[in-house]
Amino acid sequence: MRLSRWQVIFSVILVAAFALSACGGAGTAEKATSGEITVYTALEDDQIAVYLPLFEAKYPDIKVNIVRDSTGIVTAKLLAEKDNPQADVVWGLAASSLLVADQQGMLEPYAPAGLDKIRPTFRDSANPPHWVGIDAWFSAVCVNTVELEAKGLPMPESWEDLIDPVYKGHIVMPNPNSSGTGYLTVSAILQLKGEEEGWKYLDALHENIAVYTHSGSKPCKMAGAGETVIGISFDYRAIKQKAEGQPVVAVFPTEGSGWDIEANALVKKANINPAAKTFLDWAISEEIMVKYAESYPVTAAETSVAIPEGYPADPIAQLIENDFNWAAANRESVLTEWLTRYDSKSEPK
Amino acid sequence: MQSAASLAQKKAVGFEWTEERLKRLLIALVIFWLLLGIVFPLFPLIQRSLQDKNGNFVGAANYERYFSTPALSISLTNSMEVSLSVAGLALVLAFGYAYALTRTRMAWKRYFLLAAMLPLYVPPLAHGIGLVYLFGKKGLITTGFGGAFEALGWQGWDINLYGFNGILLGELLYVFPQAVMILMVAASLADARLYEASESLQASPMRTFLTVTLPSLRYGLVSAAFVTFTLVFTDFGVPKVVGGNYNVLATDIYKQVIGQQNFEMGAAISMLLLIPTVMAFVVDRIVQRRQTAALSARSVPYQPKANPWLDRAAFVYCLSITLLIFTVIATVFLASMVELWPYKLNFSLRHFDFSTVGGGGYGAFWNSIRMSFYTALFGTAITFFSAYLIEKLKTFKPARSFAYFISMIPVALPGMVIGLAYIFFFNPLQWKFGGLVIPNPFSFLYGTMGILVLANIVHFYTVSFMTATTALKQLDREFEAVSESLGVPFYRTFWNVTVPLSLPALLEIAMYYFVNAMVTVSAVVFLYSPRLKLASVAIVNMDDAGDTAAAAAMSVLVILTSVGVRLLYDLATRGISRRAQAWKAR
């Protein structure tokens, strides 16, 4: 077959165009700037409202669909969809939850750009890491000052203070069987005091507890509304409620607080959307890390942002030496023990 | 109508497209959708309950662990205890209310009926918020309105809300409208001839009540007991908000699945949840079987006579219950319009601006309205058509009984079980049973409006189906018989006779679907997608995030929407209903 001249020219142009577009394609695979991704997150709504517009301004052609819910629901949804994952990216979910997803082989290792700036304790030790942290949150005690005064109670300062019988019926705490914050606190006490002393302490604390709640934010919320005097909860919650004008103060127990990391991960699926990687790169970039630092005193990468108001001056000193592996390995046995000791009581005292 | 010629033509092709075949095909279609919506999704759940976390088959190990852990199995006792208490109390209270509405001549009947239905329009979490603001530690009642009545010697009244008491109160509000509805239907079917006989025999009013009224209502009472028991047994919203440390099965599923991601134990508890409800269902069916002859064609509708003392007592009784219902709802309205409860009590509408809180704000609100509208539209069509085929077609009896049985299952399914089952069934691209791998043709539904609507239709199917069946039973079978002998195909009778006559019931079902879809959380919380946020889920999210006032504000919008739709419906149907139901009047 003889090709006409025009046919030859046309073919050459076609091939060239193809090669060029292939080059272009390879170029954009490095950093996709368009597409649509689904992000599962447990970050607070008011935080997302600040963070997300920054990403959208930088990558206007990437459409981000956010699924936000409490840590438990997001984790349950993620795991339940294991056979056909809907999420592309997990953003700001408790590392302890991501460990569970990782054990089930649901996370794709990925080293986001700027990983070298992340503190070594704030990322998965594997290389490339399965998850990368963005901030830490820790247990804190919310105290309603109005109710405290009305009842003539002293201001508690430590875990030890909380088992004083004067607080009987005035403390609310999350149930570790349904709340990550609850488990954080219980595991911190067991790690601080050792198992034997720790359970003795929890026995004594149990005497003062009015009610165990399902969610970790509820105790602080109840304290804010005067439904209880003292609520064991976490830092961000307490500070936020104070800022809203509720009569609560955040007390950080002198012995130290239990803590967990909020982390990001890439979800393993057949076709990984390159835009997901763009998002993960952005989610630990300096631009956003500064924003995280405005609401969290401890972030995965160091920033020059001042510690937010209401937090201790040296927040890192407040964190206990948390052995995540211990916490993960003993989770089931601790929860079962806790359940048998305290959860079988049917009526609040 | 098919002409003989066209029939012959079809015969020649080798396939006779008769009416009989069409009926069978339609019944098969009904069974298909019932299996797809209700039965099949349960299989992956049952499968899970027999597995360990790594997907290995472990037999009944999860169940054994459940019963050998007292902290878990106490929930079963608690669930029974609270469900029986609520069923008993609700029955007594609702009986009085329904009696007053149907058998007396008290004033304001119309308004009392509307008031009794109000709790249906309130998101369960809003009831919780209302109760906490009234009876919580800083509640209006607990503190005696902030000590406003101290001069009168009333310090306030602490009912110890969190726990059994809270669940009891919340569930009573939740099931009261349903119990009243069922008992009213039963009470309105009374045969006046029996009362005339009783009167002419000079029986005392008490004797008449015991020997005529109560026996004629026994089926209604059993039905109401069954429905209230099941609703309480499977409810999750109320115990979550005011349950305190009083653990029940529905919150246990939540703790296992959400708190520990233990789907296997969650699935096992879901299965346990089914047992008492299925038992209650069987009892109910056995009792109902005898009811067919309760109202014969010769019955005369009962018209209550004036009885000043009884009418006055009834009025006071209904007024007090209505006031209780109003108080809780009014508290929710109050909560949404106060700057900062209970410390800054000035009026403010700032909580209605949802831009600073999560959950999706007004977008979620519109999505909810759309979803509820589709649920009402498709739900009513599919429910009524299914009920018609099952009730009226005299063919294929075993298949129709089977379909009837499946239609009764959803009432025993807690919303959360439906939600979980739907993830496991609709999300995977293929199903694995043992070594068998089947591609899933329905996975495209996942994350769409379609699955939300389907979940809602299934969740509220049984009550709608029963309403449709009751309405159809009231229509004489003669219609079908006459049509058949005249050679009119059944679908024409359906469209020209059955549907117009059942219009009030159809609209009632549509309303029921709409208001329930507006407030439901448990079934959709696992299924909603980022593009389809919902108001009811937003309420839970906002409350979880501590934005109680915003949650109350969204609840107010939901309540106003449902009440608004209800009022529109009343205005629009008053004429239609009167004309269509004229044949019932004496």
Residue-averaged pLDDT of chain A:
86
Proportion of beta-strand residues of chain B: under 5%
Our Rg estimate of chain A from Cα atoms comes to 24 Å
Principal-axes shape call of chain B:
globular
| Structural domain count of chain A | 2
What oligomeric state do the depicted chains represent? heterodimer
Domains of chain B (count): 2
Question: Briefly, what is this?
Answer:
Chain A is α/β, with parallel strands linked by helices. Chain A has 15 helices and ten strands. Chain A is 45% helix and 18% strand.
Molecular structure report:
The complex is a heterodimer of chains A (349) and B (586). By secondary structure, chain A is α/β, with parallel strands linked by helices. Chain A has 2 domains: 30-136 and 260-313, 3-Layer(aba) Sandwich (D-Maltodextrin-Binding Protein, domain 2); 137-259 and 318-343, 3-Layer(aba) Sandwich (D-Maltodextrin-Binding Protein, domain 2). Chain A is built from 15 helices and 10 strands. In chain A, strands 1, 2, 3, 4, 5, 6, 7, 8, 9 and 10 form a 10-stranded mixed beta sheet that branches. Chain B is mainly alpha-helical. Chain B has 2 domains: 16-49 and 360-581, MetI-like fold (Orthogonal Bundle); 60-348, MetI-like (MetI-like fold, Orthogonal Bundle). Chain B has 25 helices and 4 strands. In chain B, a hairpin with a 3-residue loop joins strand 1 (338-340) and strand 2. In chain B, helix 3 crosses helix 14 (263-289). The longest helix of chain B is centred in the N-terminal third of the chain and has 34 residues, at 70-103. Chains A and B meet through helix 2, strand 2, helix 3, strand 7 and helix 9 of A and helix 5, helix 13 and helix 18 of B.
